[in-house]
Records
---
Amino acid sequence: MTDVTDGVLHTLFHSDQGGHEQVVLCQDRASGLKAVIAIHSTALGPALGGTRFYPYASEEAAVADALNLARGMSYKNAMAGLDHGGGKAVIIGDPDKIKSDELLLAYGRFVASLGGRYVTACDVGTYVADMDVVARENRWTTGRSPEHGGAGDSSVLTAFGVFQGMRASAQHLWGEASLRGRKVGVAGVGKVGHILVEHLLEDGAEVVITDVREDSLLRITSKHPEVTAVADTDTLIRTEGLDVYAPCALGGALDDDTVPVLTARVVCGAANNQLAHPGVEKDLADRGILYAPDYVVNAGGVIQVADELHGFDFDRCKEKASKIFDTTVAIFARAKQDGIPPAAAADRIAEQRIAEARGR
């Protein structure tokens, strides 16, 4: 890949990038910005996906993450019924150390240079206040504050959608769309996870949590002493009597080490790209573990930010996010009909919608 000089975009087209339409490397030396914008597909409309700010081990790792996340957004937007393709951006670095208005403004100029092919929003490491800054340089930024014409934090509807997917999983497996009396383990109780915990408690679930941040755990256990906090994810997934495991932190939560020791019967969480590699979905199915595809159940946030482009209405968005329940039920039915894991069934449905759009 070609290096990037100040203020210059190099758009890269490669046949070996999983069908991605465009990959943009961004660098602004004055602010310290190094970023990657990946556009997987615009068949259904402008690519829509958040901006992740993370201290990647290498630029190659950042590019790989951007590509995987962008592809996932194409499928997510298709399954959510949105007229958007998939894209994603990653900013390389520790946001606690290098994030600044100057850096975010520089990033906003790169988004602007794409002329609407990519619409950005919040993701890990970026927040509503950050999007307000980015939006000063372009009109293709969502996830802004209400004071700046936006819809605010999309975590609320993301958590709501995951909860709907979890209810659908419970109905499919246990015959009742409720988590009452079920033990649910939530790994990662940050922006989305802590709201999901509230839904679960209201529904009568027993909740076990873990997080790398002690303050995130304390925020919940101080308010809800009935919630149990455990040391780490490995302890959580081995918890006796666990019915549902909800990965709500970074991707790759389901791999060759975790799947064999999972005690839960259902996996349904907010994290993106939970399957560490192809084949994990089959390993889950072989163990009798029901997997609710991540990009289906965590689509509440993208439903919200997409609506923001047309004049945000929370009730309208919540109604659309509630349909994640029906979509998840339909995926399980398709998986059973075709004799394939739910993840493969979701991919087939999404690919069909994208292909039909390309053929129009």
Note: The radius of gyration is 20 Å.
---
Amino acid sequence: MAKNFDVVVIGAGPGGYIAAIRAAQLGMSVACIDAASNADGKPAPGGTCTNVGCIPSKAMLQSSEHFDQVNHHFSEHGIEVKGVSLKLDTLIGRKDNVVKQNNEGILYLFKKNKVTFFHGTGTFSAYVDGGWSIKVSGQSEEELIAKHVVVATGSAPRQLPGLDFDEKKILSNDGALRIPAVPKKLGVIGAGVIGLELGSVWRRLGAEVTVLEAAPDFLAVCDQQVAKEAHKVFTKQGLNIQTGVKIGEVKTSAKSVTVPYTDAAGAEQSITVDHLIVSIGRVPHTQGLGVETVGLKVDERGFVVVDDDCRTNLPNVWAVGDVVRGPMLAHKAEEEGVAVAERIAGQHGHVNFGTIPSVIYTSPEIAWVGKTEQQLKTEGVNYRAGSFPFLANGRARALGDTTGFVKILADAKSDEVLGVHIIGPSASELIAEAVTIMEFRGAAEDIARICHAHPTLSESVKEAALAVDKRSLNF
């Protein structure tokens, strides 16, 4: 017998589980469907982010940072450590436990908010009286009838043509998080967020890492000044970064992977590595959703087509997160999930794409929001820029991490903050102040006039704002 709900959410990643919880908070009867399982077959809600993305990668970045610190930086603090060894199984076990805690946390939140969870694959079946028929295929078969459906099925890693992931030699982000032994040599195709973060993890643990990027410029999505600093620092750390390359036919064997490529100068090159991480972007995941059955419209790249409010071409069917247009970021998905739940409830949910921050969790961290300097120049915007180096920040000196700077771009006439770019310690946390200022269309002067605690890294944001008016006090 079919079970009726006001809202059925397909997918329990950041967009899906947050949409389900918010809809339940607004008084609706809600179900959420997700097929992911952990090693023992139990439900593993949280999507790519929780299971093989944001959360486990940050756990491994933290562990590898500790290993790097004890090996290379503790002596600066007068701490002498001898005989350091790595227990990789323990490190990966800790990562798995962090993931499990997050899985269990989401299931708890479902229970707390009275969201009914179904462990299985959700598929559109038909339009019926009362809404949409959704079939759940899992350990048990269910039919749900939903007045509204939210598609939040996320994305999957993009493969190189003709090179499938086997997660042993050719690795996606999933396999890259569970390499059984530290490789002597590791190749990474793609110098984006995933490639740089995972490359950094294994470099710190002792691998020789080569990163191959097809684009001619390193981190072209970032402000050029930030990208230049990042390239210098990562290269000094030991990452071998090659840009402007063209990958040839990759050959695999039981023991190695050989990657031929043409470098930026046109010379034929080749690397042989123990494992190859392929991180060349992600593709929307709609397999098994039944889009053809009900006529749900997708574009030529496979994304579910939505309007500005995340409505699809079907009545009362919505879509959020990686499966639709816009940046493939967990926090973007969450904001869309909340907005859609509120729109279903008759409210006016809102997502400002202009103030969605981006972060790369390397060391140093990189974070930004708004326009880059090159974008402002292209658009012909008259702006002023101010920057402040962490080298001149007292807290950064005390931490022993003075790499990088804060850069603020403001409208030359109104002083409205148009973009903030940070490379340095705790950039992922510092960017929140910039997002807040920009959401309220604040000025650089507003940041400059706010009292920041001393000594803190956040003072560098204030000093960069002062520098927009050429009156930095500490540099």
Note: The domain at 170-280 is CATH 3.50.50.60 (FAD/NAD(P)-binding domain).
---
Amino acid sequence: MRFNFLEDFLALVFPQTCSGCKTSLYAFEFQLCRKCEASLPITSYHLRPKENDLTVKLLGLTKADRVLAFLRFSKNGLSQKLLHQLKYKNKPQLGVVLGKLYGQKLIQAEFDVNWDFIIAVPLHPAKLRRRGYNQSAKFAMGISAALAVPVHEGLQRTKFTQTQTKKSRMERWENVKNVFHFGGKELEGKYVLLVDDVMTTGATLAACANALLAAGVKKVDLAVIAAGTV
């Protein structure tokens, strides 16, 4: 048996903790303890992907095909804690873990996974430099690993926009409706899964979906880590 004393020392001095409850993780756990993983507020949107309260939010904004969410968002709940860790506490791998868990959930549910590509809602380059990673892209990477569907990075955010917080549904739409662009033709006739971290009014996802549809994408499905009132 080979022992890595440096890794053991670092684990002792800087123990890895759960992103949900902050308890120390065992060697077989990563980002989430087994208790928090079992407590995830997983939704059933994949059982009714074309008729749910998320699809209603998008009426009049875009022609997305199916709309999914992994977790149900609740204020001060586990999903909010995980989103906060992912976005603001430098936990990029948490997004990958959540994506893998969701991909596995879709497989177990025998969900019709027929996407050609997975695309993440892009950050503006300035925000990407500041944060260091795109949390939605990490979620996309996890789903990709679970489903063996490639990630495509061609969608671009061409304008820096103000935060959507405290804006109304229509104000959010006006803020983002013309800020995304896809310039290539390689997605013509393809079926794409577009992913983001959270969905409130759906304005950002709708704007991205419209840019993809304008580029010739045949169908766009949407999926987020969590959905609810944020």
Note: DSSP finds nine helices and six strands in the chain.
---
Amino acid sequence: MQQRFVYEYLKDLNQSAAYRRTWYNCAPGSLCAAASRLYRNVKVNRAVQSAMKDRLASGRIRADDVMRWLWNIVIADPNEPIQYRRVNCRKCWSDIARDPTDDPNPDCGFYFGEGIGEIYHSDT
């Protein structure tokens, strides 16, 4: 049962949840105390630490990969894949054929010369 507790603990690193999954008939009031007591057991704690070291050594979790992934999130530019653009409406340049790349006409009565908003998805 202790090996089962170690296995369950490594899933989410939650003592109470691992204890509940290992011993189904545990009273809710004593769950935290029992889980903590079992985790402090020398054999169980050594098994958890050993399994954590094995997990790190096997390459399942590498700190460098996690830091690189987090850094890429921090420096990501949200405008790369999706952009919000202001383009001219169909009334901006009514006397000329509408070119979507033209800027909005500041004298346009519709949308107060600001044009309309358009979301542009770049091809990735």
Note: The chain has a mean pLDDT of 81.
